[in-house]
Amino acid sequence: MKNLIPLLAALAIATPLYAQPVPPPAVQAPVMSEGVVRKIDPANARITLRHGPLVNLDMPPMTMVFRVQPPELLSGIKVGDTVTFHAESVNGALTVTAIQAAP
Ligand SMILES: [Cu+2]
Questions:
Q1: What percent of the chain clears pLDDT 90, i.e. is strictly above it?
Q2: What's the 1 CA to ligand 1 centre distance in angstroms?
């Protein structure tokens, strides 16, 4: 019994560590940016956007080509549309991963 007490004490200290619920990974809403569609290249899943500041990419406004992933995002988007979109670096390529024509 004498030897059991330190063990119980250790368990009492250790147990709360295991009992702590693991917090779920923070689900962050993607940062949406604004742009105007200048060109669409569905065959290559590319879109050219004149975009405003991309806060999450620390990028100033400019006109540039993005990859689009998945390419199906391009359906319903046409040249001249004002869009809100999310762009991020995917394997080093700046990629639009969400896009929506502004109403
Ligand atoms: Cu840019």
A1: 67
A2: 70
Residue type, 7: L
CA distance 86 to 96: 6
Å from CA of 53 to ligand 1 middle: 8
For all residues of the chain together, what is the average pLDDT?
Answer: 87
- Using the mean position of ligand 1's atoms as its centre, give its distance from the Cα of residue 4 in Å: 65
Enter the pTM of the model. 0.72
- Radius of gyration of the chain, Cα coordinates, nearest whole angstrom: 24
Q: Can you give the residue ranges of every domain in the chain?
A: 33-101
CATH 3.30.1380.10 at 33-101, yes or no:
no
**For range 45-66, the mean pLDDT:** 97
